[in-house]
Amino acid sequence: MKVSVELQQNVNFKGTSASGHDIMMDGPEEFGGENLGARPMETMLIGMGGCASFDVVHILRKRRLTVNSCVADIEAERAETEPKVFTKIHLHFKVSGEKLTDKAVSLAVQQSAEKYCSASIMLGKTADISHSFEII
Questions:
Q1: Is the dihedral of CA 43, 47, 53, 57 positive or negative?
Q2: Buried-most residue among 35, 44, 89, 135 (CB within 10 A)?
Q3: Which one is the CATH code of 40-135: 3.30.470.30, 3.30.300.20, 3.40.50.150, 3.40.50.10950?
Q4: Are 132 and 90 in contact (CB under 8 A)?
Q5: Segment 26-42, tens digit of pLDDT
Q6: Cβ neighbourhood burial of 62 (10 Å; 0-12, 13-18, 19+)
Q7: Helix (H/G/I), strand (E/B), else coil: 81
Q8: CATH architecture classification, 1-38
Q9: Are 57 and 42 spatial neighbours (Cβ–Cβ below 8 Å)?
Q10: 3-state DSSP helix/strand/coil percent for the chain, to nearest 5?
């Protein structure tokens, strides 16, 4: 996989994915940021949420369950000193669909966390990661 990150202005960067999609990132205002994009660490959490959500939906659909929506709300804490790595991350999934059971969703979340979500497993090297879910 190959991606690129290009300075646009001040501390605003355009990230281009291997699949050709752009993500705008910007630093905080105290370092010259102009709120033109997400902070880089926010994009890491978004990526983790996307990875985990993909897994949960894929696992449930593979079991022939209908998933109408899946929202992952993520809260994280960072270390107070440099490097300010994530120390705690909590993912809360809100899933809706047909015939979804607590057992099926719980298993999908667990499999994502323990086996499939590369982003979660990687970030779990520095952060305590927890999960919860609700069926809407």
A1: positive
A2: 89
A3: 3.30.300.20
A4: yes
A5: 999 999 999 999 999 99
A6: exposed
A7: coil
A8: Single Sheet (2.20)
A9: no
A10: 35, 40, 30
pLDDT digits (tens, 9 = 90+) for 52-98: 999 999 999 999 999 999 999 999 999 999 999 999 999 999 999 99
- In CATH terms, are 1-38 and 40-135 the same topology? no
Q: Which two tokens stand for residue 132?
A: 């919860």
Decide: helix, strand or coil at residue 20: coil
Return phi, psi of residue 51, to 5°: -60, -50
Question: Domain map of the chain by residue range?
Answer: 1-38, 40-135
Q: Is 127 helix (H, G, I), strand (E, B) or coil?
A: coil
| Contact yes or no for 1/13 (Cβ under 8 A) | no
